[in-house]
Amino acid sequence: MARVPLIAGNWKMNLDHLEATYFVQKLAWLLRDAHFDYKHCEIVLFPAFTSLRSVQVLVEADNLRIRYGAQSVSVTSQGAFTGDVSADMLSQLRCSYVIVGHSERRKYHPEDDANIVDQVRAVLAAGMQPILCVGESFEERRQGIELEFAVGQVHDVTRDLNEAEAAALIIAYEPVWAIGTGMVATPQSAQDAARAIRAHMRQAFNDTVANTVRILYGGSVSSQNAAQLIQEADVDGFLVGGASLEVEEFSKIARIT
Ligand code: PEP
């Protein structure tokens, strides 16, 4: 089964709503100019919450094929949770995806596996797809347990999902030591992790789930290394941080795929 590659730009806490709309317009223009075929590669942007509505209005007004989503979500649906944003609020803005379990959220916010499972459920219940981030630290890699660690994180979050829920997941393998450091994983180690995660989904669920779930690589992806990484059989695209803030650079990564 052919999986459509997905190139996602995680802007983190960068680009205000004016910069965001400029970026979306320019990206659409660059990709149109390059006769980009959205049927063979999905493009998804993750702006800050404050830009989502502006991006939605632009995408819908100009009938753009670019998708967008949120960088995190509340596990509760409404109420006295100051500063939180619910999954229903995001789906009303026609977000397609929500990043869940990014290492920066795990580090700077109290997001543990139980909370991440609840986020996954909230996203699915609202009709969107979670992009679940997993990946080892430098210390786990040094100990040679990187595959067990990443697969263990997938297992901990997915073990109570049913097959339909599991098939709706996208998994981003993002070794923490590679995020924002310029130290990209080798294509072979990205493939080893993606293959191990897919094998786990096959064993825990079934062939259909394993063959459907897209597995992205994230960690210092740029237009210099994307072409080699995307050759790997189990790497279905990228979650791009720093290099997604520059529209020409991000469009180059998209066009490589
Ligand atoms: C990320 O934060 O998801 C990421 C992959 O960042 P960078 O591309 O900057 O390493």
From TrEMBL:
Its main location: cytoplasm. GO terms for cellular component: cytosol. Its EC number is 5.3.1.1. CDD domains: TIM. It catalyses: D-glyceraldehyde 3-phosphate = dihydroxyacetone phosphate. InterPro entries: Aldolase_TIM, TIM_sf, TrioseP_Isoase_bac/euk, Triosephosphate_isomerase, Triosephosphate_isomerase_AS. It is found in: Cytoplasm. HAMAP family: TIM_B. Involved in the gluconeogenesis. Catalyzes stereospecifically the conversion of dihydroxyacetone phosphate (DHAP) to D-glyceraldehyde-3-phosphate (G3P). This is Triosephosphate isomerase. It comes from Bifidobacterium psychraerophilum.
